[in-house]
Amino acid sequence: MSPVNTASSRLDCFFLARLADQAERYRDVVTQIKNIIALTDAQLTQDERNLLSVAYKNITATLRASWRTIDNLQKKEARSSPWEQLLLMRREKEYIEHDMDEVCRDVVELLEHSLIQAAAPGEETVFYCKMKGDYYRYLAEISRNELHEKYATISLDAYKLAYKHALGTLDPANPTRLGLALNFAVYYHDIVESPERACYLAKHAFDEAIAVASDPSFSGQSLEDALMILQLLKDDLLLWSGEIGLDKHLSDV
User: Fold this and answer.
1) Which of 75, 98, 141, 227 has the fewest CB atoms within 10 Å, i.e. is most exposed?
2) How far apart are CA 218 and CA 1, in angstroms?
3) Full-model pTM
4) What is the dihedral of CA 137, 95, 99, 182, to 10 degrees?
């Protein structure tokens, strides 16, 4: 295929991906970005990787919400509902787990076999390694016993790699670095069940970012994105600190 045709095909795929995103057809977004990955040896632009990330996030968000709803109902109705209804709940939950497993495996395969290997040092590598941590975390959420431990370990390793790389290459108020800190803290809270570790990581990231974002020279879209994530960090900090009695220490956040 000639360079001209490749460029044209890429533009067409990107247009269709944006169109599908606006129409909330997120699986179609993934299909078009995968076409771009095949055309470009996994060299995505920032806009292309953001579209891919948002598409997978929307697909899994619905599944995770459905899973949590049934999981809560199972716990609530465990002693009061007939066993036939509990069995139906379990089956429906397993269907959702199957769909969730399928989507997450699709994401991590794309990341491990293409995107991470082709990523440039810096923000791109951090972005993809964070995604890997996120989707293995989702798999850990719906898994049990040895499988849960396996996915939790892979997720932790991905977050650690991303965080180490972010500390060496990205500004503390960089939205990608802040988003990583937020999700890594969620991992410690939800998967490790350690609000102490979650608070420590979130507070450290929050304080460093505030020092940089307060500089008048730091402005524009990056500032808006950073402030939005900082608010999420603050909300989680206040929530988690209440679990471990640190409310007074964090009252000035």
Assistant:
1) 75
2) 43
3) 0.90
4) -30
